[in-house]
Amino acid sequence: MSNEECSEKVDVLICEELNVRLKKLKELLKEDVIYSNTLKSLEEINYENEEASKKAAERIIEFLDHRHDEYVSKNIKKDDLKDELTFLKTNLLVDLSNKNLCDDNNVEQYGNKIKDAYKSLRNIEGVDSVIASEILHILFPNFFLIWDIELAKYIIGKPAEELNEDDYLCFLKIRCKCINQNEITQAYSEHTTSESKREEITLMKPIDKPNTGKSAEKTIL
Questions:
Q1: What 3-state class would DSSP assign to 46?
Q2: Helix intervals (H) in the chain
Q3: Other Cβ atoms closer than 10 A to 80
Q4: Angle at alpha carbon of residue 34, lines to 86 and 43, rounded to 5°
Q5: pTM
Q6: For residue range 169-189, what is the model confidence (pLDDT) as tens digits?
Q7: Three-state DSSP state, 49
């Protein structure tokens, strides 16, 4: 999907739907103990600690089983996932550790790495388009977003089996464009509100009577 095609998908309705769904998901994950434990397990991943990487893979599969109706653990090979997590965390995506998705044009700057990471995860047996986004989010929760089949289909306009790395990058770009548009709208609203208040104060200010030089005494007829 080209940048032009992706940009054309940004409108008020899509931004509102995206905001509602992501807010709901954030609230659910905030109270999820398994999610919290999975995040902690990934902090110790490195090439020198294979046991930590193995434990992180097990935690992620537990989290995925917890989120999905059908158990995914029977389909994903833990060793393949373990190796991929280590590579992504300590190599391909290491520059994203302290970055937020929509800051400093990051989504554009790291676009190729985002696509490479997503595609690499999809190559693991048992990892579909949704699971790939969930794993990326677990690795870097401030950078990657989780999408579900319904949300992806609504925003991208494709069935789940046709979604690819370009579509996921587009999804992230749309999120950033929505945030940017919201900030512009809010800034404009604050500006116009401020201007309206100034006009209101000006209109309410009492008008001084002109000095005619005459006495204010009542004239007796």
A1: strand
A2: 3-8, 12-30, 33-42, 50-67, 78-87, 106-109, 111-122, 129-139, 149-156, 165-204
A3: 15
A4: 30
A5: 0.81
A6: 999 999 999 998 865 445 434
A7: strand
Alpha-carbon 186 to chain mean position? 19
Query: Tokens in use for 182?
Result: 């919201």
Contacts of 145 (CB under 8 A, 6+ apart): 22, 101, 133, 137, 171, 172, 175
Tens digit of each residue's pLDDT (9 = 90 or more) over 61-90: 999 999 987 777 788 988 999 999 999 999
- The rounded Cα 49 to chain-centroid distance in angstroms is 30
Contacts of 55 (CB under 8 A, 6+ apart): 41, 44
Contact between residue 76 and residue 50 where contact means Cβ atoms under 8 Å apart: no
Dihedrals phi, psi of 74, to nearest 5 degrees: -75, -15
Residue-wise pLDDT tens digits, 138-177: 999 999 999 988 888 888 988 888 999 999 999 999 999 9
